[in-house]
Amino acid sequence: MLFFPLFFRDAFVRQTFLGFDTFVEVTLPRRYAFLFSEIDVLVRRYDALWNRFSSQSLVHRINTASSWVPLDEETFNLLKEAFALSQKTRGMFCPLIGGLVDLWGFPRTPRVPEPWEIARELQVIRESTIMFDERERSVLRRGGAQLDLGGIAKGYFVDLLTQLLRERNVGSFLINAGGTVSGLGRVWKVGVLHPRRAGLLGRIAVNGLCVSTSADTFRFFEVDGKRYHHILNPQSGYPGSTFVSVTVVASRGTVADVLSTALMAGDESFLAQVLQEFPDVAVLAVRKDGEIFFSPKMQEIFEGNREP
């Protein structure tokens, strides 16, 4: 599910970049358009570092090395935050899920794996970890699980770009990295697409907040009438089956991105855990039967039809 700004004024200009396997749209006041070239460099740099399918990326190097891998500061901090959030979500967000994603054949050749294949990969994940050396700023992968930052990289990049624009004294802007959005300086009306029919569920008013949606809308396949999407539950090994769309609003894109991913993979009990562990976030979740859940904080900022 994608977010998009509902309107632009003549004072704003927008440019689109390709990175993180999606489109990164940045809207700035016209007088700051000169920053687009710097933003383009950042998108290319971090996409190249964090894309596990590129043999030149740091993630690929970590996944194939048998020794410590030195990292740049941002990648090291990203990995630390990824594993901290994995622990806080009790493993429902899993940075070592790459092998399981490959088992399901995403994104190119999707298939339903055999149960024994899933069980074997889950065992590999349980026996694997990433070790950190703070002094040398390096990491070591222990075990055979594959690092995959697909559930956090966009959100972390949105936070990096938000920080850059603040440092450049840009007072108003909107960033949309494939459904992870950061808006500042005005009340941006962000549309939330309905996961099963054309049109909007409604709008979220964003100013100084980040929004992320995960859904089964764009990356899925069907076998015998059953839909299988790409957001996998790290505990069962199968796609999440409770929700068809989850939207999370948080103060940082990293948290919003991780929680929308984890909630799509989880169930009702995990939703209750998230609301307890992350009391400052707002959640909108569309259940498989079409019923829509609004957390109290989401009710305060959501505008639109609340009927399924």
Please state the structural category: alpha+beta
* Helical residues, percent: 25-40%
Distance between the termini: 16 Å
Integer average pLDDT: 92
Q: Count of helices?
A: 9
Q: Characterize the overall form.
A: globular
Total beta strands: 17
* Spatial sequence of strands, sheet with the most strands: 2-3-7-8-11-14-15-16
Radius of gyration, in Å, reads 19 Å
**Which consecutive residue ranges, at least 5 long each, have pLDDT under 50?**
1-9
Q: What's the main sheet like? A: 8 strands, antiparallel
Q: What is the N-to-C order of secondary-structure elements (H for helix, E for strand)?
A: EEEHHEHHHEEHEEEEEEEEHHEEHE
Strand content: 25-35%
Structural notes for this entry:
The chain is an alpha+beta fold and about 300 residues long. Helices cover about 30% and strands about 30% of the residues. It contains nine helices and 17 strands. The protein has helices spanning about 35-50, 60-65, 75-90, 100-105, 115-125, 155-165, 255-265, 270-275, 295-300, and strands spanning about 5, 10-20, 20-30, 70, 130-135, 140, 175, 180-185, 190-195, 200-205, 210-215, 220-225, 225-230, 245-250, 280-285, 290-295, 300-305. The chain has an eight-stranded antiparallel sheet. Helix 6 (about 155-165) runs antiparallel to helix 7. The radius of gyration is 19 Å and the shape is globular. The two termini are about 15 Å apart. About 40% of the residues are buried. The model is unreliable at about 1-10 (pLDDT under 50).
